Amino acid sequence: MTVSAAPAAAAPTSPLPATITLPSGFQPEGIAIGDRPYAYFGSRVDGDIYRVDLRTGAGATFSEGPGTPSLGLKIDDGRLFVAGGAGGDARVIDLRTGAVLKSYQLRPAADGPFINDVIVTGDAAWFTDSRSLTLFKVPFGRHGRLPSAAVAVPLTGDIVLQTGNNANGISTTPDGRGLIIVQSNTGFLFRVSHDGVTSRIDLGTETLPNGDGLWRRGRDLYVVQNRLNVIAKVALDRRGTSGEVLSRTGSASFDVPTTIAEYRKRFYLPNARFTTPPTPETAYNAVSVPIP
Fold first, then answer.
1. pTM of the complete model
2. How far is CA 291 from CA 74, 95, 183, 209, 213, in A?
3. Which of 93, 193, 216, 242 is the most interior residue, by most CB within 10 Å?
4. Are 243 and 13 in contact (CB under 8 A)?
């Protein structure tokens, strides 16, 4: 394994801005980028979705939140899927209008949920809950039709519920037959079958503590280790049962980045600044770095 540092944001290799200024006090966590040059960010404060033009850095509120957080985000088929954190919910937003197409109460807010991240597969959206051993599945109908309710999928097998953040970032296996989650408090990766059976992914002696957002490119899985200010690169086997940590890449521009999205062969990461006390005046941004 090697440890390297990405080029500083002040000297980007892309013509697009390497630093994106977000509203003061916004408290970003999630990011999603589709085929077009627009990034969407979710606020931990009130759930607002902020859209930025990656060509200019200009942005504006795209969809007003419900007053509870918007965390993990993913784009699919003209829709933005939003994990609702402590609100215990998930929302689906129309990317043309910013209107909420559907909202799902996955767990009662009084039960202390933390709906943290989402991945969209061919037939469903899957949401993690960092406070329970449960995934929530939003199964699609014909032509991607949204269902009336989500389905709870209990997690069984190797994973054990621990104090703190459990299942956080989520992705798919290289063969597309399973899911991958990272357990933040232990640093373990797990392969998850579609019926919820977990198997710990063999990384040898390596772990990924503070693992947050996941991004997979082929057999390479990138794991944001938020408070460590690095992106770990993991080479997986085809089924996602074992892997090797190849590198950890940091940048002077990182300030507790949480998750990751890709555009034009660069990674974009929002700086959540968890170690900085939040105020309405606190500055926030997102940064881009070359893909390690």
1. 0.94
2. 19, 26, 23, 21, 15
3. 93
4. no
**Burial label, 11 (beta-carbon count in 10 A; 0-12, 13-18, 19+):** exposed
Alpha carbon distance 171, 8 (integer Å): 28
Are the CB atoms for 153 and 134 separated by under 8 Å?
Answer: yes
* One-letter amino acid for residue 267 of the chain: F
Collapse the DSSP code of 110 into the 3-class scheme (helix H, G, I; strand E, B; otherwise coil) and give the result.
helix
State the Cα–Cα distance between residues 213 and 210, nearest whole angstrom.
10
Sort strands 2-5 and 243-250 into parallel, antiparallel or unpaired.
Answer: parallel
How are beta strands 156-157 and 197-200 bridged, if at all? Answer: parallel
What tokens were used for 35? 């085929």
Tokens of 34: 């589709």
Q: Order of strands across the sheet with 151-154?
A: 115-120, 124-129, 134-139, 151-154
For the chain, the residue count is: 292
Average pLDDT, integer, range 188-204: 98
Sequence letter at residue 142: R
